[in-house]
Amino acid sequence: MQIELKNLVRTYETVHAVEGVSLSIPSNEIFGIIGLSGAGKSTLVRLISLLEKPDSGEVWYDGKRVDNLPEKEIIQRRRHLGMIFQNFNLFSSRTAGENIAYPMEICKYPKEKIHARVVELLDVVGLSDRINAPISTLSGGQKQRIAIARALACSPDILFCDEATSALDPKTTQQILALIKDIQKKMNLTVVMITHQMEVVRDACDHVAVLSEGKVVEQGTVKELFASPKTNVTKEFLAHLTSNMKSVREDGVVIWSDDPAHYVLRFLNDKVDTPVISDIIRQFDVVFNISGAGIQKVGDTKMGTMVCDITGSKKAVSDAIKAIRQRGVTVEEVEV
Amino acid sequence: MTPALWSLIWQSTLQTLSMVLFSTIFSVVLGLPLGILLCITSPESQGGIRPKPVLNVVLSKIVNVLRSFPFIILIIILFPLSRLVVGTAIGTKATIVPLSIAAAPFVARLVETSLKEVDRGVIQAARIMGSTNNQIVFKVLLPEALPSLVSGLTLTVINLIGYSAMAGAVGGGGLGDLAIRYGYQRFKPMVMLVAIVVILLLVELIQFIGNKISANMMKKR
Ligand SMILES: Nc1ncnc2c1ncn2[C@@H]1O[C@H](COP(=O)(O)OP(=O)(O)OP(=O)(O)O)[C@@H](O)[C@H]1O
Ligand SMILES: [Mg+2]
């Protein structure tokens, strides 16, 4: 479903939330809209999704104007839209499965069909065993999965995601993004992804528009935007991102090799500044192959982390590890 | 306390129970739709899903006026209505009319508050899936607010037990009536005491049941 926005304007009393937005959102891809808090993203998505009427301007789906449809037709049209939210907005009065059933119930699907589809969707989002789970017993990531299943229930042609990953940790965010990408391909969806996180745009979107103070200040393919940002807003988003690159892990460790390593060494305080590794190499016949390291501050303590491989004869390696431990450094064996 | 008095207490208890039961039913029948209307016609910023400012203000004023009437006055004003509906202005049946009318605006406000507490994001989600206003009310607002509605209902029943005792002052029947007629007018303080204890026990019982139901619902969410 291709979406065309023509000069949309929406004002709340004196706040110009959306100020003349024109956009062309291509069919069958993930389109990002990024902007700071208060930029008007949620307002814009309410206008595109027909939840609110613009003060002026037009919304077109596949060459058909939809913002001025009568209420009855708007309700029918909405039944083929899906939306997921930052705080999930699931019905607490319903179980996971019943949440997914809701959109089908209001569309008067027959009972057996609803059940079959609920089972199918739970499988798509990988939560088949939680059909009867009360919502409060699900984790954030699981809630968003149920919300996605609910949004997909009536086979929508557009999926809106309003900060869908903002309440999730980085790992869960990646999983949810992967799920959305997967579904987008399988179901031929047009996905409109609202976010304030550049990594979401980088990891999931094809095209992107940058929204600032109610206006689109820049748009293009994600590659273009990363290669040659034009506005200061975009540059700032990108600058924020560099300190958050994939190669720098959450714990500040800089990874310079993607090869799996078998050991994690953790140094505390004064150990950070002593040449433990050099000493060990001199004493034992082993070789260190360091694939990542970093120092971070946890409260007042410095904590060093090193990801590495230790090679040599079996005995030499185990003696070396023993010696490292004796010096007060934690050595963890990682299953690779 | 003679067996005759005990049997009088038993009959009065039954009268009170039937008064409370029927006035609860009627006040919910009147108050629930009114409360729903109050909620959905309120301004959008307060969670109204179909704002109708004029209707909302009018309904709200009616509810406020009814709620500020002292109950005893309401009974007397409603004597003609009771006579019209049940044929008499005295006794258990007649008291159900003013009881229901006194409790209805109270129920309406409780329902309104409970429904307005439902998360607006959830309503927005229901709306984008293409729910009609009816579906939002019956499939989203009411089920989501159910535990809170049950608490409100418990409160209503307890209030009605109190009101029904008050109705005794004007010959309404039930435990309040008994306490006044025997305890006060015929100097039998024991009867008054027993009547009060029974009322207290009823209130405790209702509170207990209400809390249990509410808690059970919350546990499943
Ligand atoms: N219903 C409303 N009534 C009044 N003002 C509103 C309303 N909705 C949004 N606004 C205002 O419009 C502006 C844009 O808000 P919007 O929610 O669209 O921003 P956003 O980009 O989604 O921000 P966030 O990232 O914090 O969600 C804000 O200044 C906000 O206060
Ligand atoms: Mg927002």
Description:
- The complex is a heterodimer of chains A (336) and B (221).
- By secondary structure, chain A is α/β, with parallel strands linked by helices.
- Chain A has 11 helices and 15 strands.
- In chain A, the strands form 3 sheets. In chain A, strands 6-7-8-3-9-10 form a 6-stranded mixed β-sheet, with helices on both faces. In chain A, strands 11-13-14-12-15 form a 5-stranded antiparallel β-sheet. In chain A, strands 2-1-4-5 form a 4-stranded antiparallel β-sheet, with helices on one face.
- Mean pLDDT of chain A is 89; it is low at 242-246.
- Chain B is mainly alpha-helical and 221 residues long.
- Chain B has helices spanning 3-40, 53-68, 71-77, 79-86, 92-116, 120-128, 133-166, 174-185, 189-219.
- Chain B is elongated and about 65 Å long.
- The relative contact order of chain B is 0.15.
- Classes of the chains: A alpha/beta (336), B mainly alpha (221).
- The A-B interface holds A 49, 51, 75-79, 81-83, 85, 87, 89-94, 102-103, 105-107, 134-136, 150-151, 154, 160 and B 119, 121-122, 124-132, 135, 139-140, 143-144, 146, 220-221.
- The site of magnesium ion (MG) has 3 residues of chain A, from helix 1.
- Across the major sheet of chain A, the strand order is 6-7-8-3-9-10
Shape of chain A: elongated
Structure summary, number of beta strands of chain A = 15
The proportion of residues forming helix of chain B, as a percent range, comes to over 70%
Q: Give the radius of gyration of chain B.
A: 20 Å
Shape of chain B: elongated
Which pair of protein chains has the largest interface, and what are the residue counts? A-B, 30 and 20 residues
| Proportion in β-strands of chain B | under 5%
Structural class of chain A: alpha/beta
How confident is the prediction overall: mean pLDDT of chain A? 89
Topology:
The complex is a heterodimer of chains A (336) and B (221).
Chain A: E1 3-12, E2 15-25, E3 30-35, H1 41-48, E4 56-61, E5 64-65, H2 71-78, E6 81-85, H3 96-106, H4 111-124, H5 140-152, E7 158-162, H6 170-187, E8 190-195, H7 198-204, E9 207-212, E10 215-221, H8 222-227, H9 232-242, E11 254-255, E12 263-268, H10 276-283, E13 286-298, E14 301-312, H11 314-326, E15 330-333
Parallel strand pairs in A: 3-8, 3-9, 6-7, 7-8
Antiparallel strand pairs in A: 1-2, 1-4, 4-5, 9-10, 11-13, 12-14, 12-15, 13-14
Helix pairs in contact in A: 3-4, 3-5, 4-5, 5-6
Chain B: H1 3-40, H2 53-68, H3 71-77, H4 79-86, H5 92-116, H6 120-128, H7 133-166, H8 174-185, H9 189-219
Helix pairs in contact in B: 1-5, 1-7, 1-8, 2-5, 4-5, 5-7, 6-7, 7-9, 8-9
